[in-house]
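Summarise what follows for lecture notes:
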Amino acid sequence: MNPHLDTRETRDRRQRELDQLGHLPGLLAKALKAPGWRRHLGDIDPAAIVTRADLARLPVLRKSDLRALQSATPPFAEFFDPAERHGRVFTSPGPIYEAEGLHDDPWHAARGLYAAGFRAADLVLNTFSYHLTPGGFILDGGARAIGCAVIPAGPGNTEQQVELLRHLRPTAYTGTPDFLKILLDAAAAAGVESTIRRAAVSGAAFPASLQAEIRGRDIDAYQLYATADIGVIAYETSARSGMVVNEHVLVEIVRPGTGDPVPDGEVGEVVVTALDAHHLWIRLALGDLSAILPGPSPCGRTNTRIRGWLGRADQTTKVKGMFVRPEAIAEVGRRHRNVGRLRLVVARSGEVDTMTLKAESAERGRELEAALAETLRAITKLGGTVELVAPGSLPNDGKVIEDTRSG
């Protein structure tokens, strides 16, 4: 049985890069037909965007800003060509509104499900919500693109779902990992044998202890990294070695608060460009942390791998009544090129908030400390101390602001 959905997954890495980047000029030209993208991208020449370095010079669009943008210009902040037709329209918490394309598998979920072992003979119990949010449709469309039959169960209603297990005997599951455990426990208590043998899970943490328990129930479960805007961005494979990036997206990892790519291996914010003419996103900053892993996956797929979800990039905190954002710390770094990673540690001394800026630098001396402290005050309007530390000594966890205050 072929472990790969098609040959695109195993093509030469350089050929993939050339093919994906070759689509950028045309996709950007299409994007600029929409007023929202024209406002956001400004006066750019799409034909000049042909490398990753060119792409990195375009502004990021922060997902956290979409609510305000869509409220100002409903419903989609004019990020879609007015002539574009949609199949469904959804809402996510915020609210943020998303549109679904009319083509097959519009959220590009089939690859992730195929990597999880889903095949045409499977009957899939889909427990993601079909109500307002796109989760249920994301996995439904991907499963049916493979040829699976789908039970549109949605979340909850555990007793009814146990009856589905009893009578319909599904072989595959899509949903959150915690609900899978709830369902299996309820089935066991009711004396119902589960026929589920494979699962694709997302939307919640899947800790090692729960992975072991699900595996102990003879279920092979794989994680998907997906969002309501993009669909499936990356997916786990049989190699169990990171997550392989989907074929329809370009993923960048940038320093939180900026649009500047970080070296491979360094933790930063996930920025995605969706190479889908029906559902265009250009450098959408998701607010999630991850890192790029070196080399291709042992499963034979040659696309970039990421470590998966490592936390949130938005570390905005309030100090002495004023917000301090990652963008401010990034600006300190831009003004002092002789420092490496920066980390602002917010603490409490007595009843007073304090800030300490830890800066990696091979240089030492009060002159650099004073210059950094002055820049920190100028940008944040707050005073703080500076601590110079050895290059490479700060944790590689993507954290730019560390709030150690309790309560």
